[in-house]
Structures are given as C-alpha cells and as structure tokens.
Amino acid sequence: MTIHIGAKSGEIAETVLLPGDPYRAKWAAETFLSDVKLVNEVRGMLGYTGTWNGQRVTIQGSGMGMPSLSIYVNELIRDYGARTLIRIGSCGGMQDKVAVRDVILAMTATTLSTPSRGIFKEVNFAPCADWSLLKAAADAAQAKGTTTHVGGIYSSDVFYDERPDLNEQMVRHGILGVEMEAAELYNLAARHGCRALAVLTVSDHLLTGEALPSDQRERSFGEMVEIALEAAFSEVP
Ligand SMILES: O=P(O)(O)O[C@H]1O[C@H](CO)[C@@H](O)[C@H]1O
Ligand SMILES: O=c1cc[nH]c(=O)[nH]1
C-alpha cells in the first residue's frame, strides 16, 4: 500500500491503463477485462486489475491534471513496478481535420509547465511517446478502421483557459488536441525507463464548439481502450 493506492503488493500489473476519470476505469475494466478485482478505492480513485487475452492489466484512474497523474504514476512505477503505462483520455480537437470521436495518438506533448519544471529548470525537455507503443497503436487503429491522427498534442494546466492566444498558437503549429496529463506521463516514463503512450478520444472541439456529454466520455470510448490494450501487448521490434 502507498499513500494514495490501497492495492497490496503484487495486485498491480506491469501494464497499466490510465484514464483521468475513475468511472471510466470501472467501465473499461468491467467491459474489457476478465477476472476483474477492485484493487484501489482510496479517495475514490478507482483501480482494477484483471486479464485481457490472458495478460494481466491494471486500469487505474489518474485524476485530472498533471499533479494528480504524477502522484499515481510515481507510486505505480516506484512502489508497484509498473513498466508500461498508457493514458486512455479524452481531449479537445484543435484542427479542422480532427472530428469528435476520432482517436489521437500523442507522439509529443507540448506544455507551458509540468510538475517536472522544477528539475528541468532552463531546459525545455521534449516529452515524447514510446516508439514501440506508438507504432503498435497506429497499426491496431488502422486494422480496426478507426479514424486516427498521430502527432503533437498540448497538455494544458487549465480546462478553462484565459489565454485564447495560446490555443491559437497551438492550432497554427499543427497541434491536434488539448488535454491535461500526457506530458508529465511521458516525463515520468523517461525518468524511470518505462514505456508510455497517450491514446485519446476527441470529446469536444475547440473550433466547432461540439461537445459530448459526460456519460459518453465515461462509457463510450471503447475503441481507444482496445487500441491501448492491443498496443501494450504487441511485439514491435
Ligand atoms: O477524460 P480524461 O482522461 O480525464 O482527460 C481530460 O478530461 C479532463 C478534463 O475534462 C482532463 O483530465 C483532460 O485531460
Ligand atoms: O482537457 C481537455 C479535455 C477535453 N477537452 C478539452 O477542451 N480539454
């Protein structure tokens, strides 16, 4: 047990899927895993371990924002031995070619700041996805026929943004979507020699104003979960 995760030693798998929403963790575990066990409910941040195609997987809520994700990912890696961490999140679309319900695979994550800013100081570290996971996820998405975009995303510290000029610059520089956690996941994976990827479903669109309701963000992003599971257990040389 750690301060924020109540699982016993051995109850967390080496492969962990990380939705921000703990109820998406519950839905995904109950929908896609077998032999599911609730392994964490500290602070209501639900975590489940089960099997997918005979492989052990944990699906653990990470909360909203990089400071929250940082707590869970630090404990998952350092105390439970997690090695492959895949965020399964929602995001806002930022390009005309990106539609609501499309999937985005985050190759890089641009930020204004992250919880790692204090150690990088004057360095602008470039958080990026693990190549083997990115390649496997792109292949899995293509095989499914899911409309998928691979490229840069923006990990913001705020949902309610008072600086529309920043989003304008992101759009201008080809950023596909905005969310709030991937950059720090990539920083932590790099620091600890782990593999990480963010697989995102577009839940709303900054250019069109279209937006899905919260129940659909919680329970309807199944292709994203399947892509993450297939990527986690693919062999990519
Ligand atoms: O749907 P999740 O995974 O929580 O991701 C997105 O949704 C939340 C904001 O509504 C932020 O956590 C953002 O990153
Ligand atoms: O962080 C997020 C998530 C979904 N949509 C947004 O606009 N921002």
From TrEMBL:
A purine D-ribonucleoside binds at residues 4, 179-181, 203-204. One of its GO terms (molecular function) is purine-nucleoside phosphorylase activity. The lineage of its organism: Bacteria, Pseudomonadati, Pseudomonadota, Alphaproteobacteria, Rhodobacterales. This is Purine nucleoside phosphorylase DeoD-type. It catalyses: uridine + phosphate = alpha-D-ribose 1-phosphate + uracil; a purine D-ribonucleoside + phosphate = a purine nucleobase + alpha-D-ribose 1-phosphate; a purine 2'-deoxy-D-ribonucleoside + phosphate = a purine nucleobase + 2-deoxy-alpha-D-ribose 1-phosphate. The keyword Heme does not apply. It comes from Falsiruegeria litorea R37. Its EC number is 2.4.2.1. The record marks 217 as: Important for catalytic activity. Pfam families: PNP_UDP_1.
